[in-house]
Specification:
By secondary structure, the chain is of the alpha+beta class. It has a single domain, classed as Chemotaxis protein chec. It is built from six helices and eight strands. The strands form two sheets. It has a six-stranded antiparallel β-sheet. A hairpin with a 5-residue loop joins strand 3 and strand 4. The mean pLDDT is 94.
Length: 147
């Protein structure tokens, strides 16, 4: 499971060091693609395949389904950590996420996100508003009870 927050530099070639805890989960490689919040998502092959199967079940005559496919698959790229634990982020994805010099890697369970530091700080500040969170998440029916 991808957990925590890490700040790492991007080198001149667009390579980003992946934290050792995240790297363990990417031994079989992974996929990087555009996220939904001006960020990037990095998925394991298993998570990417599960998402792909779900998306491919959607009705292809539904315009929203086609847009989702375009958004995700047109920006997806296979990644393989190198010997030093770095992944190469394609330039167009770095530009989409506003990445320049530094990135914040954020674990979100079965995948992790890559954010520009300023964008993550704004997102994280928003997530610290307890009153807004109560309103925002009430309909999700989150429970600490075992399923």
């Amino acid at each position: 499971m991808f957990l925590g927050q890490y700040r790492h530099a991007l080198d001149d070639k667009g390579r980003l060091t992946v934290p050792a805890r995240f790297r363990e989960l990417l031994e079989a490689g992974g996929f990087v693609l555009q996220g939904f919040d001006r960020n990037l998502m990095v998925l394991t092959p298993t998570t990417f395949e599960a998402m792909t199967a779900q998306i491919n079940q959607m009705n292809m005559v539904d315009p929203k389904a086609r847009e989702l496919k375009r958004l995700l698959f047109s920006t997806a790229d296979r990644i393989e950590p190198d010997r030093n634990g770095r992944i190469l982020l394609p330039q167009f994805l770095r530009e989409l996420a506003g990445l320049d010099g530094e990135a914040v890697l954020v674990g979100v369970g079965d995948y992790f996100e890559i954010w520009a530091p300023a964008a993550w700080e704004a997102q994280f500040a928003q997530l610290q508003d307890a009153e807004a969170n109560a309103q925002r998440f009430v309909g999700l029916q989150l429970s600490a009870e075992k399923a």
